Amino acid sequence: MVLPDSNADAAVVRFAPSPNGLLHLGHAYSALYSNAVAQELGGRFLLRIEDIDLVRSRSEFVAAIFEDLAWLGLVWERPVRRQSEHFAVYRRALERLKRLGVVYPCFATRKEIAAAVTADAPRDPDGSPLYPGLSRNMSMEERERCLAESVPHAWRLDMAAAFARACEVAGGELHFVEEASGPNGETGRLAATPEIWGDVIVARKDIATSYHMAVVIDDALQGVTHVTRGYDLFYATHIHRVLQVLLDLPQPRYRHHDLVRDGDARKLSKSAGSQSLAGLRKAGVSAQEILEQLGLIVPE
Length: 300
Fold this sequence. Notes:
The chain has 10 helices and 10 strands. The protein is of the alpha/beta class. The protein has 2 domains: 6-85 and 261-300, Rossmann fold (3-Layer(aba) Sandwich); 87-218 and 233-249, Glutamyl-tRNA Synthetase, Domain 3 (Glutamyl-tRNA Synthetase, domain 3, Alpha-Beta Complex), CATH 3.90.800.10. The strands form 4 sheets. Strands 1-2-3 form a 3-stranded parallel sheet, covered by helices on one side. Helix 2 (59-71) links the parallel strand 2 and strand 3 (81-82). The longest helix is centred in the N-terminal third of the chain and has 16 residues, at 25-40. The chain is globular, with a radius of gyration of 20 Å. The two termini are 36 Å apart. The mean pLDDT is 93.
């Protein structure tokens, strides 16, 4: 993995949407916020297409992303990195984690995992039950047999082992720097506590990566110095810090921002059918009205 020159002075900020639906006001806020940070720091603004989900990602949504962002007045560097073109890079990173002994294959199905979860099971920051460890303690013989028979499996981070190894490599506790604030006002130099997530998936059954794996690798390869994203991804930083150390990647700084919400205080989302930017544009709403509504401007 060839990383950009770590001595480069320019800040690098990115907006990284997934092309599995049309962008809404929440995406507009995040893109404009990221661009504003890049302008503030006198740095570069990148667009990345996070399309590892080959089932849901569509080319027409990629085209719509370009159209929406240009309509908002944003300008980004080209070429645009598309994650779907870099699976080989992610596979090499997975092999490194295997050699370190900090991942294991998980053969359990969703149904089996759900059946093993108790009512009082601990939950992650998103409210989902922690993985109950069904495949963690398999014998080596059973694990090798399942692999030899090509039983479908994901790869999970053995969080206890991974965190211990990362702390050893780092020579002490792991930290990350939040320059804005988290959902509960977390700011400054913060201790990483990835155990709140349990054994997360780093490579899905259908592809050799996951959001967590791909995002830390792409940020490193693109020289991203400041990660800007919504509060809903704040706690994922704890996972990302562990992966950065294990994969020998540089540590960016973070700025998390508030979420745009609907009238019921729910965050906007594609799955909830939140009105798209394309729909607003079709209804006659101007880009300037969007900027004023969101309280952000694009520097001239």
